[in-house]
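One such shown below:

_____
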Amino acid sequence: MEDVVLLLYMKDEDYGRRLLRFLLRQKNPRLHPELVTSEHLVQDRVGTPTQKLWVLTDRDEVAEDGKKEVIYLSNEQDARGKKIFQFQKAEKIYQELLRFLPEDLSGQRAAMAEAEEAVKGIYGVFSPEGRGTALLSAMLSQYLGGRGRCLYISVAGFPLYYGENLSDEPDFSGRGIGDLLFSLEQRDFAEREEKMRRPFGRAHMLLPVPHFKDLLDCGGEEWGRFLQRLVTDCGYDSIVVEFGQISEYLLDFMERCDRIYVPEYGDGV
């Protein structure tokens, strides 16, 4: 089985160095990334019987030949040909890079796919006393948001986040969870959710209802349908639900979660 020498040839050398450091941290024993700073260094390199030569570049003038294969970093999201969208996280670039490289390099690819699948699901965050749920939910959504599409929602009695930024006077007029709950049977549910969601760091969020009593009319079936449509229609890999303290609708909703997290406090906290 051949190893792969991957030459990084970038217009911005600093970007190339950062990408090189990231690739080296992946510790893929079959992939050997190197940074090159001039075209003649690319042209003069050839592969060996045990190492195949690939080039990752954002320069259009670099072309494939019998000595090497080329993957282009593009500023357009174009899946045709050997192109990778440049303006995304290094982890995503690496995942797409592995798709183009030889199949016998995919042992790590399979492990990555299993890891991605393992983090998918509905995550509930609950505290009998209502303490620490906002912080843990926010941290969890950022972790999951780095590994897929994640949505953060709060059905706590007194949510901390009424938007992507903390505010002393939150805007209660925005559309969010309450509006979507009344749109469960609408064909344009996904389009409505796209217009309502807001950025939340690495994740997205939906505005909570203005008053927790607005949630009391929803039973387990509605919550289940709500979560199902967010996953299947809106394409979220994971959803983080902040419950806060015990409430009337808590158990019906918690039954729909794949994992439940409870913040633990020591003495004096």
Summary: The two ends are 56 Å apart (CA to CA). The mean pLDDT is 81. The longest helix spans residues 13-25. Residues 2 and 50 are 5 Å apart (CA to CA).
